[in-house]
Amino acid sequence: MCGIIGYVGTDEVVPVLLDGLRRLEYRGYDSAGIAVMEADGIGILRAAGKLRNLQQRAYHEPLHGTVGIGHTRWATHGAPTEANAHPQTDSAGAVAVVHNGILENYSSLRRELLAAGVELESDTDTELIAQLLGREDGPLSERVLKVVSRLEGQYAVVAVHHEEPDVVVAFRKGPPLVVGVGDGETLVASDVTALLHRTRRVIYLLNGDVAVIRRDGVRILDADGGELERPEETLDWDAGRVEKGGYRHFMLKEIFEQPDAIRNTVLAYLDQERCGVNLDGLGFAPEDFSKLRRVHLVACGTSWHACLVGKFVIEELTGLPTEVDYASEYRYRAPLIGEDVLVVGVTQSGETADTLAAMELARDGGAMLTTVCNVRGSSSWRLATSRMLTQAGPEIGVASTKAFTTQLVAMVLIALALRAAHGRADETDCELVGELQRLPLAVEQVLAVDRELYRRGTEMLGDATDSLYLGRGILYPIALEGALKLKEISYLHAEGYPAGEMKHGPIALLEEDFPVVAVALNGPTREKLLGNLMEARARGAAVMAVAEEDAEEVHQVADLVLPVPRVHPLLQPVVAVVPLQLLAYNVAVELGHDVDQPRNLAKSVTVE
Ligand code: F6R
Q: 302: CA distance to ligand 1 center in Å?
């Protein structure tokens, strides 16, 4: 979604804002803009399209000042034009505003302002906020306190007023905002990645907070103007981790970071002596866990695929019935929640609007609420009463890779903890714990596979406009994930299916130019899957398979095998997804697409 940056300091602000926006580029956007507090008022530059368009304008039409705000927009109200780009101003040009989110009372506010004779210059809901602020009196923070009660919906807003050239005011309900506390400078951003290169001291704003930001720090007010205390935290992510480090794309770097990400996640929670999971300090109490009778896993997109795998793992290790829901569905149905239900919100960003709403529903229904999340301090982190941090580090590529594999590991860790709490732990746990520790080495082997195989796989998929991904059992979610990765970044159509369902419809699509990709690792249903692949071949479809190198029977059926090492059955999804990530990456690069910022997608989906 949109990216926001604000700065009050002593450096020339334009390079600071553009640098911050560059670091937010990965979130996806279609236009960008900045506002600078200049000596004679607020200077504004906006441009449709990529950030380089704004950079060029900033070069040719320089603005000067040490205070400003910036924005990358992901269009909601109004086409991605320059007129609709942020910052938006009031008619007098006295107030400038950047905004992430959606105003639900947009139509009534717009009608009201038009009736009052205000001439609106854009189609955005953001301009309405600027106009409302412009029509109030007093310091900007007081204007905000008056206007905020009139806004319905989801918003993170950062504003400036020309009469207060040293102040930036930020307020939020829904999408995140974080303040960065520097030395003689204070920043605010929608995402810590935009701050890390200047400071690691941060204050997360909560819903309803109004932050008055100056060079020497921040005052945080509640809705009545009373002062609030919010803790300052020091981030353990360093700025180098949000750079490409020699890789051509963030996505490739992140695929190759998976062994470390998995290792760190396993090490953070493993209790080797007990062959179990150490959840100390995370808010999980074993006695609470032992009361649980059911599990609900809620998430969106790739994280939802991790939940589908989680169902297999949790049910097998604990015997607890486990349901998986799209968060966007869960929040609007009437799930049977109670004190004996563990609801797990699985989210890389911790900011996905639907997942947060589903978690709120679970909390209100009295469930034990936990989150598997990659961003400490994010909204899901704060909402949950217990939490497991996936240790993937910042994920910048829009297509999730290392966050996904660490979510898969987190599912196993949660299942092991539940299993111990329910008194089911036995010597087989030690075997699984040992395999978890060896898992990074197995992923390293997948990453070392001969590139020639991927070149051939790329040719097979890149020459087709459609493909079918098949898997069975715990690997069918990996077929869904492989297909999602391909369509996200290569824009080729791919369907993921449980292989047994192929005959119930999708087989009608199969012909010569419609390849099938099978996740065919060793297991009780592999024979069945091979039967499905024979059926596909009989219709002329080329077959590619992910399987163990020595799986002769798969080599006999498939035109191409992408090899993976043999691992514990519950860990197969982790090694199986890596070749599919590499395949999607190679196809997208071959087709010349922007891998890290695929069209129409946003890294963090903070609106419904
Ligand atoms: C796909 C992808 C998305 C996210 C989804 C949920 O590669 O990244 O499908 O998985 O938008 O995001 P989080 O996990 O941040 O809640």
A: 5
Q: How many Å separate Cα 504 from the centre of its chain?
A: 33
- Tell me the whole-structure pTM to 2 decimals: 0.81
Cα angle value 569/271/288 (rounded, 5°): 90
- The pair of three-digit structure tokens given for residue 512, joined into one six-digit string: 């010569």
Tell me how far CA of residue 512 lies from CA of 8, 504, 537, 539, in angstroms. Answer: 61, 20, 9, 7
pLDDT-based confidence at residue 152 (cuts at 50, 70, 90): very high
Q: Is the CB of 605 under 6 A from ligand 1?
A: yes
Collapsed DSSP state (helix, strand, coil) of residue 115? helix
- The Cα 544–Cα 515 span in angstroms is 8
**Does 379 contact ligand 1 (Cβ within 6 A)?**
no
Residues 6+ apart with CB under 8 A from 554: 520, 526, 530, 545, 547, 548, 561
Question: Which has more pLDDT, 1 or 533?
Answer: 533
CA of residue 303 to ligand 1 center, whole Å = 6
DSSP category for residue 87: P
Q: Which atom of ligand 1 is nearest to the CA of 605?
A: 11
Q: Which residues are catalytic?
A: 2, 603
Domains of the chain listed by start with CATH number: 3-242 (3.60.20.10), 250-447 (3.40.50.10490), 451-590 (3.40.50.10490)
Strand partners, 31: 48, 73
Residue that wins the pLDDT comparison between 233 and 147: 147
- Ligand 1 atom closest to the Cα of residue 380 is 16
